[in-house]
Amino acid sequence: MAMDKDVLIHEMTERFQELYAQALDVLEEAPDGAWISASEHAFRDVFQKLMSESYETALKNRLAHHPTADRAAFSPSGQSGGPSS
């Protein structure tokens, strides 16, 4: 069973719109003469959060649709957790 890319794209598009609207609100509320300094971090944070959430969502979906994922056990660091050689 394959990932449903259309569903993922739809979910993340909605999430992008939510986060982007938040960043736009910060820019709109920024005082004159401080637009960049008052809003730059909000935009950076939105896109970092979106990137992280997008990747996590895609990985979880891929894992949920992988036929042997329930038997797979691995360490993100590459260590098996067994005795050292």
Question: What profile does the largest beta sheet have?
Answer: none
Q: Indicate the proportion of strand residues.
A: under 5%
End-to-end C-alpha gap: 37 Å
Q: Which structural class is indicated by helix and strand composition? A: mainly alpha
- Mean pLDDT score, rounded? 86
Order of helices and strands: HH
Q: Which residue ranges are poorly predicted, with pLDDT under 50 across at least 5 consecutive positions?
A: none
Gross morphology is elongated
**Number of helical segments?**
2
Count of extended strands: 0
Which bin fits the share of residues in helices?
55-70%
Whole-number count of domains: 1
Kindly describe this structure:
This protein has helices spanning about 5-30, 35-65. It has about 80 residues and is mainly alpha-helical. The chain has one domain. α1 runs antiparallel to α2 (about 35-65). The chain is elongated. About 0% of the residues are buried.
